[in-house]
Amino acid sequence: MHKRHTKELGARWLTVRDAADRLSMRPDALRRALERRAHPADDGGTEASIDGMLARKFARNWRIRVDGPWALGG
To answer: What is the pTM of this model?
Structure first.
């Protein structure tokens, strides 16, 4: 596993549905926004960023990393 993502294992990862609640968005709208912003990561994965939150695609599912100010919301 890439060193950067080993460190991120302690981070909190939300599903699209949970992250959409925090952003006051519908889950399908957030998923489409992530797909539009998707780009290849250095380690070959797929990443996107929205409102300062990093999202990564794990298999077919997006997971949104929550830290900093966003972590306080839930």
So the answer is: 0.75
